[in-house]
Specification:
The protein is mainly alpha-helical and about 180 residues long. The protein has eight helices and two strands. Strands 1-2 form a two-stranded antiparallel ribbon. Strand 1 and strand 2 form a beta hairpin. Helix 2 packs antiparallel against helix 3 and helix 4 runs antiparallel to helix 6.
Length: about 180
């Protein structure tokens, strides 16, 4: 898909430390960039999972983030899967709590909630403390973005990539000492 090629080529051109695989290529990119391109590609054909409790696609944000951080820290496969499941559970529970009104008022739940799941999966893989994980979630909340008005454009699958990248970045920054509100 064109959107996948555009995002992937841009991030390959940006470059950086080779930490995580770009699916479908021989390239590796920094974890955040790999999460973004893999998340965008995962959602580009829109044949991904749908969770009807909150009307979103949880895996396209969570799995690319978990994969990127897992590769960055050389995690085991079982730790990757467990962390991804924690991220998926986070997205679904927040989405269920917000309900369908979140979607019907114009927000793209895949993006706005996906960053929380990707942050949780990343925090688990990075072995963040409870406080650091809270900061990561606070940072992810500041990054949560995505509007349904973008449906039908390349921005829609890019939302999934943004959510994956935002979760990765939020967890890494919390690990480095960046703090956010605990509220």
């Amino acid at each position: 898909e064109s959107v996948s090629k555009i995002v992937r080529n841009h991030l390959i051109n940006v470059g950086g430390v080779e930490e995580a695989v770009v699916i479908g290529t021989q390239n590796k990119l920094p974890a955040r960039s790999a999460a973004m391109t893999n998340g965008t590609t995962s959602h580009s054909l829109d044949y991904d999972d749908t969770h009807f409790a909150y009307l979103g696609h949880p895996s396209v944000a969570v799995f690319p983030a978990a994969l990127a951080i897992s590769q960055k820290v050389n995690s085991s496969g079982s730790n990757f899967l467990y962390s991804a499941l924690i991220g998926m559970e986070t997205v679904i529970r927040i989405g269920s709590w917000l309900g369908h009104q979140h979607h019907s008022t114009g927000f793209h739940s895949t993006a706005t909630l996906g960053c929380f799941g990707s942050a949780m999966a990343s925090a688990r893989l990075l072995h963040l403390s409870k406080l650091q994980t809270s900061y990561a979630l606070g940072l992810a909340a500041s990054c949560a973005s995505g509007l349904r008005v973008q449906f039908g454009t390349m921005a829609k699958p890019f939302h999934a990539g943004m959510a994956a990248a935002s979760g990765v970045e939020s967890a890494l920054l919390a690990q480095a000492g960046l703090v956010s509100s605990l509220n």
